[in-house]
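agent> Task received from the user: take the single chain below, predict its 3D structure, and emit structure tokens. No templates, no multimer pairing.
agent> Plan: (1) validate residues, (2) run structure prediction, (3) serialize to tokens, (4) report one or two observations.
agent> Step 1 OK, no nonstandard residues flagged.
tool_call: predict_structure(input=
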Amino acid sequence: MSQAICDDKLSSLVHLNFNGKKMNVLALGAHPDDLEIGCGGTLSRLRNEGHNILAITFTEGEKGLSRHTRRSGERVTETRKAMKTLGSIRTMCYSLPDTKLSDHIAKIIDIIEEIVEQFEPDLVFTHTSKDVHQDHRAVHEATIVAMQNKTCSILCYENCRTDSSFNPSFFVNLDGVVDKKITALKRHKTQNGKPYLTPDIILANAIFRGSQARLKLAEAFEINRMVVV
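)
tool_result: status=success, residues=229
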């Protein structure tokens, strides 16, 4: 596992040092674009440094499409293109019902447990529980249950539905990768017009999170569990 460094002068902040052994990284998201928004820059950085990443999306995000233009699998295609932009990240997409994941938590737990047995992740990214979207909370809950007996780190990312109680203490420097994150999000053409996907908003949030960590640009995470081995 990579080394975690805590600056005594900034005791509430943790700075990730990816230099070390190559990790298996599992990234879990409810909908296409969730991972790109919450941890796309971090995934790109990890991929650039040679780590093995598997991205999982549990729905096709069909509720995010106009009923007049909806085509099956359209958003899945977009997220695959986005993950390719971030660094040819391997992607698996399931078709559980969008906005109804809270009714399928047991199924999500089974999926995660099966993947974990095969993939053996060192690091897992999942939604924060501090989120008003029921699907995001469901994925968070399923992740924590599925990983309860596993030795790995779990970081929780923010999203457009994250509420003000989100309290990050782990920050990843996005210097050199934020443009790739913005480009990846542009692959989600069906979501054009949504303000939280505009480059200005993505950059503004990266600047804000960076300022919290005394960095120029950053993504921010809550630590559910941090393991150094």
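agent> Step 4: summary for the user.
Residues 59 and 167 are 27 Å apart (CA to CA).
agent> Done.
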